[in-house]
Please model this.
Amino acid sequence: MGDSFSNMLSRRNQRADVYSQADFWNEKARNYDGSAVSMWKNQALNACYEREQFAFIDKAIGDPKGLHILDMGCGTGRLSRHLTSQGATVEAFDFAEETIRIAKAQDPSSSIRYRVQSSFDISEVSTFDVVAAIGNLTVACKTPADVETIVRLVHRALKPGGRFIVVEPFHDSFLSRVLRLTTAGYADILTRNGFRVDARKELHFWPARLPLCLAAWPRPLTVTGYYAGQALLAAGGQWLGLGDYKGVAATRVG
Model:
């Protein structure tokens, strides 16, 4: 199921207005299934992306057992379930109610506390050991000022020494989603608002992503293209900014 290619391109061209609306993600949740609800149409590519994203987050967190973690913009709860399976206590929210419905349906007996909420409505104070997000800031925020607002809310919600870990497609080019911001610009916002940046990493070789994401290509073709791109990224593409998503881990110090 899903949109025609022409409709996908039309929405991409209007992404600044479309991707930031809950209605878009609610419609995706109704029309797609599996990881395509909150990621790409090619679910074999999504599986490759997920492994790489989770690996960065796992390394940044360390042992999550016993930690209180907020999954910010959780989509259908993929990261929440991953962290819970390792012993973390997880709260999660998303502004699209259909994705939260799907997240809850994945495991009705789960201890994960899901809610419908915007990232701009984080109200906790010194509550979480970790706040983590995948593809949230670059959709929720239209300007760097919006990012700064959320960074300040996350700073307040974290315990002293808590960690803020994001995996986001930070770009100031045609690859941007709603937000146009470089990784360096995001790091500057973090340091201005009481964080120390601990790690930055380029993820997912974007030239390989462009042809692979728009159709449900066979898994062998997808995996071959993905790993060929990753080899090029490892061979020097990271220095050229050729990653699509960027992993950034920071610690609250202020």
